[in-house]
Amino acid sequence: MNYNFMLVLLAFLVVVLQYSVVAQPSATFNVQSFGAKPDGRTDSTKAFLSAWGAACGSMRPSTIYVPPGRYLLRDARFTGQCKNKGVTFRIDGTLVAPADYWVIGNIGNWLHFEYVSNVNIQGGILDGQGTALWDCKRAGKRCPSGATTLRFSNSNNIMIRGVSSVNSQMFHIVINGCNNVKMSGVNVQASGNSPNTDGIHVQMSSSVTILNSKISTGDDCVSIGAGTSNLWIENVLCGPGHGISIGSLGKDLHEPGVQNVTVKTVTFTGTQNGARIKSWGRPSSGFVRNVLYQHITMVDVHNPIVIDQNYCPGHKNCPGQDSGVKISDISYEDIHGSSATKVAVQFDCSKNYPCSRIKLDNVKLTYGDQPSTASCDNAGGTASGVIVPASCL
Ligand SMILES: *[C@@H]1O[C@H](CO)[C@@H](O)[C@H](O)[C@H]1NC(C)=O
Asked: What is the residue range of the signal peptide feature (predicted)?
């Protein structure tokens, strides 16, 4: 046999072997074959849950396909563990929450994934229809607290790609008790005066990444709660909203800390805060350590760089107390742009546990044609490179 022929034969065998052993064909479940109607009016909750049941119960890797159109869904829980190595939701349509906020407003969550692994959500628009609830809250009327649009709890290896979340009643996306969550191309949209509509909230979770996303909302762009570690945020546009916030932390006496957070190449436009760390002025076991803010652009941000350890809303249960949250190793590198207030840098730290090893490196924040200022209380660290306003560390 000639050598070339043997090579071709070998390559052929490898391909056949791969197809039969590795590339197990995946199963696709179209929500319309389970009765979902793309008319925006028919309740499709049961159909989606049946499709999930079939996909999750299949031994093969499965895809749930949502064709174009609007699908009305009440609250839905998608629970695992599934029998297979993964379920993909491929959404070409829009999922719509009930317009009447009383239907899901007291349930906590609209679309809730729990105890799942290897779930992948690709594309689609999630429309929380929250505007009526925001009006109710702003008018100070009796209204429910509202539902989070998309929540993952106690889950691993999750991917959320190219998903848009608009007008959530409450938080848009919550990651709680999860490990290894990758989000990219996420688009969050809610008006700048919508209450409690945080874009992405992460807590009790590790190895979460948020890439290439745009978040416009009435509350935090990203909020980072207790027990978060190894969080990576890169190439994100924030605004309007309240910025990227670590906290509020230290509400409880016993609380896990936040560590290893990277916020890189982020632009804040017209937000209330930029890079914020916030803790209650109360005793706590909590901490924040190893945080890096790098290549950040601020455009008319009210508090571009802020650590506030005296959070005490309504001045109840905290006045006169001091925060127990220990803040250390916080680096700000290449932060530039404009502040909408005179105080561009503010470190208001705990008296008993001063902030330590804060590092400023090339920070330049201007305030119109007037000088900007920095303010420090109980904060220590170093500054290098160009620093405007002058460092108070
Ligand atoms: C910090 O988190 C990143 C992911 O965000 C990870 O790659 C890195 O290994 C972590 N570093 C430490 C010291 O755990």
From this structure: 1-23
CA of 70 to the centre of ligand 1 (A): 40
The answer as to whether 379 is a domain residue is yes
**How far apart are the C-alpha atoms of 121 and 160, rounded to whole Å?**
5
Closest CA to 45 of 13, 72, 82: 72
Q: What is the pLDDT of residue 315?
A: 84
Rounded distance between C-alpha atoms, residue 325 and residue 135, angstroms: 35
Residue ID of nearest Cα to ligand 1 atom 8: 230
Residue given tokens 């696709």 in the structure block: 28
Give me the residues of the chain with pLDDT under 70, please. Answer: 1-24
Question: Does residue 223 contact residue 210 with C-beta atoms inside 8 Å?
Answer: no
Average pLDDT, the chain: 94
Kindly report, residue by residue over 98-133, the tens digit of the pLDDT: 999 999 999 999 999 999 999 999 999 999 999 999
Q: What is the pLDDT of residue 115?
A: 98
Classify residue 1: in a domain, yes or no. Answer: no
Is 205 within the bounds of a domain?
yes
- Say whether 201 is catalytic: no
Pocket test for ligand 1, best of 175, 208, 224, 230 (most atoms within 8 A of CB): 230
User: CB–CB of 326/287 below 8 Å?
Assistant: yes
| Atom 4 of ligand 1, residue of closest alpha carbon | 230
Residue 222 is assigned to a structural domain of this protein: yes
Dihedral sign (CA 350, 201, 262, 391): negative
* Protein residue whose Cα sits closest to atom 3 of ligand 1: 230
DSSP code of residue 115: S
List the domain range (segments joined by +) for residue 359.
Answer: 63-79+87-388
- Give the chain's domain count: 1
* pTM for this prediction: 0.93
